[in-house]
C-alpha cells in the first residue's frame, strides 16, 4: 500500500492552484487621448490593479476546497486501491465507493504542516532519539480518520466549497483543522484501517448521512507505544486493537495532520 501512496503523493498535490489572472486593456477607440485623459486612465488602472501577485494568490488561497476525482482518473484508481487494501477484509471488499474528493488546501495550511515537520525533525536531532525517520521526514505516515458526511449529494461541481452544516463531521473537522472540542480534549485518533470510526461519531439515523473516511498525511514523530510501555517524550501515542489487526495513533498537535482525500462510501 505504501507504494501506491507514494505514487499518489508524487502525482497529486494537496495545494490549491491559482487560475491564470490576466488584466485586459480597454478596447482602443482609434482616437488619441490627451494627457489629461491619459492621467485619468492611469489612476483608474492603479485603483483596479492588485498591488501584487502575492495578494492575488493570498486572496485565492485562504479557503480550503474540494475537487472531485472522477471515475477513470488514475488518481481515483490509486485512492480506491489504498482504501480497499486498508479495509477490514481486503480480499473481499464489501464497501461501495460513492465519491472521492481531493482536499485543496490554502498555502497557509500547507506551510503550517511543513513547519511542524521541521520542528519534529529538529527536536529528534537535538535529543538524539533512536528514531531515524523522525530526523529524516518527521516520521510521516498514511492514516485514516473515519467519520460521516451529510453534504455529499449526487449533484457536484468540479470544485466546491466546504459546507457549514454542523452535523457534517467531515467539513467541520477539515474547516477547524482538526481543532474541535473533542480532539482538543482527547487528541486526534487515526487508524491503519480505512473502515474504523473515530471516537466521536454522531447518530447514524440521519437520512442524508454517509460514511466517509479522510485520508491523511501525518507527522507522527516519536511514537509512544502503550504495548511496549517504554515511556519517553513523544509526539504521538500508538496502540493496537485487540479485536482486529488495525493500529491506531493518537496525534496531539493538529498541525501534524494534513487531510488529502475524502472517500465517501456505503
Automatic annotation (TrEMBL):
The protein's name is Uncharacterized protein
Native source species:
Jatropha curcas (Barbados nut)
Amino acid at each position: 500500500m505504501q507504494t501506491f501512496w507514494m505514487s499518489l503523493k508524487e502525482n497529486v498535490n494537496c495545494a490549491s492552484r491559482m487560475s491564470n489572472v490576466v488584466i485586459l486593456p480597454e478596447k482602443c477607440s482609434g482616437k488619441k487621448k490627451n494627457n489629461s485623459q491619459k492621467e485619468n486612465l492611469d489612476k483608474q488602472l492603479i485603483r483596479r490593479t492588485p498591488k501584487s501577485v502575492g495578494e492575488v494568490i493570498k486572496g485565492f488561497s485562504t479557503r480550503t476546497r474540494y475537487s472531485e476525482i472522477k471515475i477513470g482518473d488514475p488518481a481515483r484508481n490509486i485512492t480506491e486501491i489504498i482504501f480497499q487494501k486498508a479495509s477490514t477484509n481486503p480480499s473481499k471488499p464489501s464497501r461501495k465507493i460513492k465519491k472521492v474528493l481531493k482536499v485543496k488546501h490554502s498555502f497557509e495550511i500547507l506551510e503550517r504542516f511543513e513547519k511542524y515537520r521541521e520542528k519534529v525533525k529538529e527536536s529528534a536531532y537535538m535529543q538524539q532519539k533512536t528514531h531515524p525517520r523522525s530526523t529524516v521526514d518527521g516520521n510521516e505516515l498514511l492514516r485514516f480518520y473515519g467519520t460521516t458526511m451529510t453534504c455529499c449529494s449526487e449533484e457536484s461541481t468540479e470544485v466546491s466549497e466546504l459546507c457549514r452544516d454542523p452535523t457534517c463531521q467531515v467539513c467541520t473537522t477539515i474547516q477547524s483543522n482538526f481543532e474541535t472540542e473533542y480532539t482538543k480534549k482527547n487528541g486526534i485518533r487515526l487508524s491503519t484501517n480505512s473502515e474504523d470510526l473515530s471516537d466521536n461519531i454522531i447518530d447514524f439515523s440521519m437520512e442524508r448521512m454517509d460514511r466517509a473516511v479522510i485520508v491523511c498525511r501525518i507527522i507522527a514523530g516519536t511514537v509512544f507505544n502503550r504495548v511496549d510501555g517504554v515511556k519517553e517524550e513523544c509526539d504521538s501515542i500508538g496502540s493496537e486493537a485487540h479485536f482486529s489487526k488495525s493500529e491506531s495513533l493518537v496525534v496531539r498537535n493538529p498541525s501534524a495532520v494534513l487531510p488529502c482525500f475524502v472517500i465517501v462510501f456505503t
